[in-house]
């Protein structure tokens, strides 16, 4: 496989990891350390790292399979944004169910805020994720950044 094809195939995974790692870092620092400092910090860190990787793999696989279907441009854009937001929303709900028990990040104490803080970024970040992946200027940006 040539270098360009390899880059294109790995791009959804790398981009998803960048997005999910940034989000999970925000949750770890803001929710795990500042708002809800009780609990084991190493377990919270392990949780957020695992979630970032798992979400990136899920998004990467689904978007790669979706793009392989070669739908028209509009369908590709809408489908990518929808699938990205759907996967991150499902992850938010899974995380909420788990955190309702552990309360490391406020899932038991502030469930509405917890779920909103997961769903809102999932939907809002779907737009730049899709643009970076599919727009020529977005791909140029990723190329300059080494993605």
TrEMBL record:
<keyword id="KW-0812">Transmembrane</keyword>
<feature type="transmembrane region" description="Helical">
    <location>
        <begin position="111"/>
        <end position="134"/>
    </location>
</feature>
<keyword id="KW-0472">Membrane</keyword>
<keyword id="KW-1133">Transmembrane helix</keyword>
<feature type="transmembrane region" description="Helical">
    <location>
        <begin position="12"/>
        <end position="33"/>
    </location>
</feature>
<feature type="transmembrane region" description="Helical">
    <location>
        <begin position="78"/>
        <end position="99"/>
    </location>
</feature>
<feature type="transmembrane region" description="Helical">
    <location>
        <begin position="45"/>
        <end position="66"/>
    </location>
</feature>
<protein>
    <submittedName>
        <fullName>Uncharacterized protein</fullName>
    </submittedName>
</protein>
